[in-house]
From TrEMBL:
Residues 40-214 form the BPL/LPL catalytic domain. Its EC number is 6.3.4.15. One of its GO terms (molecular function) is ligase activity. It is an enzyme of class 6 (ligase). This is biotin--[biotin carboxyl-carrier protein] ligase. Keywords: Biotin, Ligase. NCBIfam families: birA_ligase. InterPro entries: aa-tRNA-synth_II/BPL/LPL (IPR045864), Biotin_CoA_COase_ligase (IPR004408), BPL_C (IPR003142), BPL_LPL_catalytic (IPR004143). PROSITE patterns: BPL_LPL_CATALYTIC.
Length: 286
């Protein structure tokens, strides 16, 4: 789908959800020597991840490109799931990163790094306590119940790096939730739902964490990433079921995040088994 320009007049159809200010975002984020090279805001597209992967492959985007959509009609989640939300009800964006000096074996930390950055940025700007569900979900508490308010998806862009997509429900109302387990910042009691400062805070936090990780050549211990992720991970200490490719499942207590970013489960058989990919179901509160 060809993105539509964000200047479309329909942007004022919901005055509780004003449009993002692309020019102000560029002024606040694009600077000499910084990571972010360009910030583009489009009114609607199928998937910002798909668009940015295509732009990178065609040589039309480089590291530090940011693509934001006011609405995604075919947003992607992990395991081929769809991500949909009303226009301007959240932050839906993708960034292109190319950590050439970091061994590819450590690139698997990028979704976890993004989770830490998003949680940190939202804590500062929205005043909402968030937690991370391994490997890529952002959780908030609504009425004493843990709900998913955001997700992260990483995709390789050929030899051009990695595109990281982020979706965050900001002003999604109770009657708009796609499933009862979903949440949003406003439902979690955010002190601010102004998407411009929220996006700036998240991208500045991502720039900070990415720079720290790159300076450590991707080492999760030296950069502090492994420790910080574990401290904010709601999955650790819980009994979970890992639903793995090939219709295999493992149940055990999540006891650690290892040096490769994998979730380590202690099973009933006394075995510690690392999980690198799969769907995690929380079975018992921490």
């Amino acid at each position: 789908m060809t993105p539509r320009d964000a200047s479309d007049d329909s942007r004022w159809s919901d005055l509780d959800r004003p449009p993002l200010n692309a020019a102000a975002l560029r002024r606040g984020l694009v600077r000499e020597g910084g990571l972010w090279r360009d910030v583009e805001v489009v009114q609607a597209t199928g998937s910002t991840n798909t668009d940015l992967v295509d732009l990178a492959t065609e040589g039309k985007a480089g590291e530090g490109a940011v693509l934001v959509a006011e609405e995604q009609t075919a947003g992607k989640g992990r395991l081929d799931r769809q991500w949909t939300a009303p226009a301007r009800s959240g932050l839906f964006f993708s960034v292109l990163l190319n950590p050439a000096e970091v061994p590819v074996a450590r690139w698997g930390w990028l979704p976890l790094l993004t989770g830490v950055a998003v949680a940190t940025g939202l804590s500062r700007s929205a005043g909402v306590d968030t937690a991370l569900k391994w490997p890529n979900d952002l959780l908030v508490t609504v009425g004493g119940e843990e709900r998913k308010a955001g997700g992260i998806l990483a995709e390789r862009a050929g030899s051009f790096g990695v595109v990281i997509g982020v979706g965050i429900n900001v002003t999604l109302r109770e009657d708009e939730l796609p499933v009862p387990q979903a949440g949003s910042l406003v439902l979690a009691g955010a002190v601010s739902t102004d998407r411009d400062p929220l996006l700036r805070a998240v991208l500045r936090s991502l720039e900070e964490w990415y720079g720290r990780w790159r300076a450590a050549v991707g080492d999760p211990v030296v950069s502090g990433l492994q420790e910080t992720y574990a401290a904010g991970c709601a999955t650790l200490g819980r009994v979970v079921r890992a639903e793995l490719p090939g219709e295999r499942a493992i149940t055990g207590e999540a006891v650690a995040i290892d040096g490769d970013g994998r979730l380590v489960l202690a099973t009933g058989e006394g075995v510690q088994e690392p999980v690198g990919a799969g769907d995690i179901v929380h079975l018992r509160p921490a």
